[in-house]
């Protein structure tokens, strides 16, 4: 033992004697007079944004229903394991009884009178970005008038060829528009009909069990300026599924029937017909039984012949539909099944395209295994047997290979087939992409990829267009001009027959985007709003004006976002937890890097969420927390991560003791006053509190009360910025108390859902609450906001079960889904994201502004720890102001080994990690090294600080 000590002492003395002159020379070289070095480019190296693109999808290879599973888990009744039947219609019916701002009503449930004052909300875009659009039509009396319907954004009308749009769906009406038709008879052109209820693909619905059943068919008698629900299609007070009009696939009117107002609708189970303008209906094909067809379609040829499709897949049983087939009718009442014997047995949705140039030619595109394409030519008789000729074109379905080149209907989610009005052989099919054939898909050699993803096959979008096709129509005055609707809204081509088809967006105020998440800057000076949208990626703006410009940052399904101090760093994400950091200098982004932890979500069954939460520490925006599946991951300086397209391990580690045994981490919140208190919730209803969250030994406490919330989905936790003991916890499930408050740091919880719950235990038809926000006001008062599946609500008094929530902006925001709310204390601005109508903002008065933190005058460099080190060592430092900081590593000879940090850091304490590698990523040899710190706004300081590191592997 004594020998070991002598050896160590001897080597230490030799090392010190040898290094004294080296250290003196190195250290005092900084003291020599020299001109100040100007602050250079201060962001990580630039990477082409195209390298980060990700295909938007309803699932991933490992889980093709990832989006559906994510949304379903948020909403299911934890007891039954299912989403209540018909809940969308029930909650809308229920919400109409709730108070609104500016109203004075009697609460019949609690016999309390209340007065509520007005609020003003304004739409803030995105002005030029549209959302998923299935319904599209031109007014036959004026082709400059376009009507289009977002699947969760309502009906919109343009009378100037898409240069501007007006929303014509009433805010309180259902916004799930799927199809539209005009009465084209002379003198009757002001009559329009639109159907509702998107059975497949509605990303606000929460999966199969929460299918957003429609509210029937709406009718307009004034050219689409206003709409009224047809009582015959409403089905009465919402209970169970009893009304096939809750799913309307398509509508046609009959221009050849001069004596009756004839309308036919492809609904759940079959084709229904009305001869009195929708006042009454009867089935003419199929019926709503256990063996009825789940998918239907109808189309009318130019010579007055109807065609309809009825899926093999059944609506409410595992059996095949008794009405499976392809049908033809000359009068809309009597139908003949013309499906050929060799048509594939199993198929789901099938869409129809009829040639105007030759109405005897009809194309059928079916979602089967995987897809089928057939051409039918009517010859004589009833069209069956020898009376019709069938050509199987399936082998010629477009297949361009690569990552996105092949036709892909995504299980019938996106399907359209249309024929050029003047040429029966120019045929268009749409899946994720849009394709054109000039020989009716008789061969593969005459097919062109003309929309959707870029023909570069690199997951970027086709210029002016968007993936996931839903409709296509042609201008009557010039059929080469085509208008396309897709998951990105609406586009127009001035020549769809051109060798290279060009497109221009018509999303000029067509605000139908479907946000998942939103973030805003803490500074009104830069006024940044950034958010992630379903199938539209992530965009950013610096304006709250309706027509403000939004800049595209990332593709895919956009997720959580964050804005660093002064807007220097902006973070966006896409599905399954990919997080991208943008470095912003003045008004330009000059670098980009992927920063999500490579180790997160590795536990089977507890992987990353489809939309993965992450947050920045409000006191140091270089520190990030990520909901990493079964645990929380922390990065102490995410700005240090260099440009890369891969996930990273740099500076990431899992927060000790935050792992959960089951489910996934679903929500995160970090405190402002006091610092470093982290709350998080899970998909199984658990709630946890972590103190000293910034340390290496945080303390975790399980706050989950022993109550019915077990098994629920914690969609949001919000912390009072003035008092970290005051929190709101939100459960998004149906049939569960939605909002809980704790004023003692989670020791006790009180349900405060109040009148948002139909019953005091949370059961019934109350909306799903997705988010909550605590806004401190002057005089110890508060404003509380709740984002729900039926709009935005507020209260100024949390009174347990007697809490009265009133709807905000009922005539502006309406009943669209509000998944997230963000608040800025500096000026009282609130921004909400909606899943269907973009972003709304409002600035509240009389809010409490937090006092500014004392200015840190300290400029110091702390000793690294551990020291000596073998793998990683942490270097902490303090800055007196936010500025560019630079840390260099030198060897014992004074030679620069690496620039460890060169980017904006924050006032106060910061830290970086060195992994013992040089600037080329190569391990350096054991020995003594030095690290220096300087900082500056326009130029670096004269005297950097320096300390010594010992590396011993």
TrEMBL record:
<feature type="transmembrane region" description="Helical">
    <location>
        <begin position="12"/>
        <end position="31"/>
    </location>
</feature>
<dbReference type="InterPro" id="IPR025965">
    <property type="entry name" value="FlgD/Vpr_Ig-like"/>
</dbReference>
<protein>
    <submittedName>
        <fullName>FlgD immunoglobulin-like domain containing protein</fullName>
    </submittedName>
</protein>
<feature type="domain" description="FlgD/Vpr Ig-like">
    <location>
        <begin position="874"/>
        <end position="932"/>
    </location>
</feature>
<dbReference type="Pfam" id="PF13860">
    <property type="entry name" value="FlgD_ig"/>
</dbReference>
<keyword id="KW-1133">Transmembrane helix</keyword>
<dbReference type="InterPro" id="IPR052025">
    <property type="entry name" value="Xyloglucanase_GH74"/>
</dbReference>
<keyword id="KW-0472">Membrane</keyword>
<keyword id="KW-0812">Transmembrane</keyword>
<dbReference type="InterPro" id="IPR015943">
    <property type="entry name" value="WD40/YVTN_repeat-like_dom_sf"/>
</dbReference>
<dbReference type="InterPro" id="IPR026444">
    <property type="entry name" value="Secre_tail"/>
</dbReference>
